[in-house]
Amino acid sequence: MTVKLDAQRLEAAATPALQALIDNQTYAGFGAAVWQGGDLFYERYLGRSDREADVACNHDTIVRIYSMSKPITGALLAILWDRGLWQIDDPVAQYIPEFADTRVYVSGGPSDYRTEPATTTMTLRHLFTHTAGLSYGFDENDPVDQIYHEGAPAGYLDGSYNPDLREFVAMLAQLPLRSNPGTAYHYSFAIDVLGRVAEVITGSSFRNLLRALLFEPLGMADTDFTVDDARLARFAPCYSPTASGGLTRMTGQGDARYRPGYRLWSGGGGLTSTLYDYGRFLRMLLNGGELDGVRVLSPEAVRYMMTDHLPSALLPFEANSPGVGYGLCGSVRVAQDPANPWEPVGVYRWAGAASTTMWVDPSNGIAGITTPQLMPGNMAAGDILRQRVYESA
């Protein structure tokens, strides 16, 4: 451990900069916390989780973590790896036969397109690192994404499409790939497919696996795919920026998918959580897979999660992420970035569409989280906190 945090210096460096994000209406409110080893070095709740109802942010404010669900899915799969139930280069079709004959898009439009057989075999590695050739359907100018929007995944975004995970993944397998597996990085539904792999391996539902193997052992009582009536008052609304520089409360941002009865348990983006709960997850990772005397992962499995598994030819996974590879469902810094020399090699991190961020720095025993609820995503709170942590040490 080379970085030693000082709580007073961190307070002076971080809090004014984070408060400015409330004052200038970047966010309505958020929580921020940092741990080193077993100690909480920083915890602040700024602004309001619900401005209209004048509700303060708190450790138990429930937030949409969207893609911060992915590291949790990675941890679940790491538990199964610990038990010898899969290997990273296993073919996906070994678990989900619908992926046995994947085809790659060649040409044409959404209703009349041509494909050809994939020339490489899709593996679990490709799913973990978003190199399987799948998509999210976000790019309206991409022909494959247009095909996604012609099918059911478009309704996935607003909650109107409500299959179970088996049905959803089987449908994905029928869509053309954007590229041959292992040849290109593209952010996608791949982590949702891994949730189905976990179901096939164990014979249990993805939701029950998360509860039994992670949430209950770690005391993450408020982390789930749905928010019941008893907890609804703690569920923060989401905001979006206005043209005049203010904020407006969003309505209809897919909240139907968080209510009881929704069946698509998305390991890629479906969970809600709290700063307290997700902090316990981060502390478990910091402590090598154990928290408060309860072990859920071996130290080897935690290291495996935070090891770069991206095919070397694809580093970095995005042009604007120099020195960054991909572990199990999260990015891993593999080389220092000259533009941001303060971030250590080995940092494992990810973020969510509503601006939440997390990171784990195993070499220095540091973890942190921020929990805004703003869309489109703006990761300024997480970026500022992470930088101030290292620059103030």
Short structural description:
By secondary structure, this protein is α+β, with helices and mostly antiparallel strands. The chain is built from eleven helices and 16 strands.
Structure notes:
The chain has 393 residues and is α+β, with helices and mostly antiparallel strands. The chain has one domain (1-393): Beta-lactamase (3-Layer(aba) Sandwich), CATH 3.40.710. It is 29% helix and 18% strand. Strands 3-2-1-16-15-14-13-12 form an eight-stranded antiparallel β-sheet, with helices on both faces. A two-stranded antiparallel ribbon has the order 4-9. Helix 2 crosses helix 8 (206-218). The longest helix is centred in the N-terminal third of the chain and has 17 residues, at 7-23. It is globular and about 60 Å long. The mean pLDDT is 95.
Q: Supply the CATH class.
A: Alpha Beta
Average of the residue pLDDT scores? 95
Q: Architecture, CATH level 2? A: 3-Layer(aba) Sandwich
What portion of residues belong to β-strands?
Answer: 15-25%
Tell me the overall shape: globular
CATH topology term = Beta-lactamase
Contiguous uncertain segments of 5+ residues: none
Estimated helix fraction? 25-40%
* Main sheet characteristics: 8 strands, antiparallel
Please state the CA-atom Rg, rounded to the nearest Å. Answer: 20 Å
Distance between the termini: 12 Å
CATH superfamily: DD-peptidase/beta-lactamase superfamily
Number of strands: 16
* SSE order, one letter for each helix or strand: HEEEEHEEHHHHHHEEEHEEHEEEEEH
Tally of DSSP helical segments: 11
Which class do the helix and strand fractions yield? alpha+beta
